[in-house]
Amino acid sequence: MGWFEALVLGLVQGLTEFLPISSSAHLRVTAALAGWDDPGAAFTAVTQIGTELAVVLFFAKKIGRILTGWFYSLYKPEWRSNPDARLGWLIIVGTLPIGVLGLLLQDQIDSSFRDLRITATMLIVFGVILWLADTYGKNERTLDHLTVKHGLGFGFAQALALIPGVSRSGGTTSAGRLMGYQRPEAAEYSFLLALPAVFTSGLFKLKDVGGENSPEWGPTILATLVAFGVGYVVIAWLMSYIKKRSFLPFVIYRIVLGIVLFGLVFGGVLDPNAGPAGH
Predict the structure, then answer these.
(1) Nearest in space to 196 (alpha carbons), one of 276, 105, 87, 118
(2) What distance in Å separates the CA atoms of residue 161 and residue 126, rounded to the nearest whole number?
(3) Confidence (pTM)
């Protein structure tokens, strides 16, 4: 991977990680359309560390309260009913599904799940699910209403994002809207829930950077830094946008992209398992 390629993919990662349109799908499709090799699961996982650092910076005060409350709840019973402490425990609960499935499906994540036909299908199917959830979901719950059952619901939705095209933020936000959570609340929990999973996955995949099927360290670090800067701007914009507007533009975009991707694959322009046909 060259420096320009890393710059472009870092921009794509930062722009798409927090929007409900699947960053892994966009990294995969961008590389394929440009005639580059698939950047691979390791590159995706490591560059996501950059975007999650943007989450840490944007929600720093909130995360500080959660960590403080959770730590005190370990040995001070009176803290166990504290909202921030509860949220900390429920983030742990919600992380369990992707942790277990990520280990069980590791081979598929690195291979069969990256088929562009699967990516196109997930873009369309979960675009429709997002529309249904956002249209018919009630705006009655905040994170103070979060329960273990709901935390697991968010968690299983996040685990679906192991398949490119689903979208971590799209899947978890859809689950939240179906359970009656307000848009900003569902999005905020989605971002916070991603932190343990993404940091764990990224650190686990660090060993693969510079390996036979992964980019070198230099370009990977550049892409991660770019993703951090762009990701922070996107978080700020999205949290403001969804206070007043629906996810419909993202739904339309997902469906159109999925249809175009199917056309490119079945038209022989793109090889579903690599980059351009014949590459």
Answers:
(1) 87
(2) 10
(3) 0.86
State both tokens at 251. 């739904």
Token pair listed for 18: 């927090």
Burial (CB count within 10 angstroms: exposed 0-12, middle 13-18, buried 19+), residue 81: exposed
- pLDDT tens, residue by residue, 232-245: 999 999 999 999 89
Nearest by Cα to 18 from 51, 53, 56, 63: 51
Q: Give the pair of three-digit tokens for residue 11.
A: 């921009």
Structure tokens of 206? Answer: 């660090």
Is residue 80 within 8 A of residue 70, CB to CB? The reply is: no
Using alpha carbons, select from 141, 114, 149, 85 the residue that is nearest to residue 25.
114
Distance CA 112, CA 163 (A): 9
- Residue where the block lists tokens 């698939």: 38
d(CA 131, CA 276): 31
Q: What is the pLDDT of residues 146-201, one digit of tens each?
A: 999 999 999 999 998 888 888 889 999 999 999 999 999 999 999 999 898 888 88
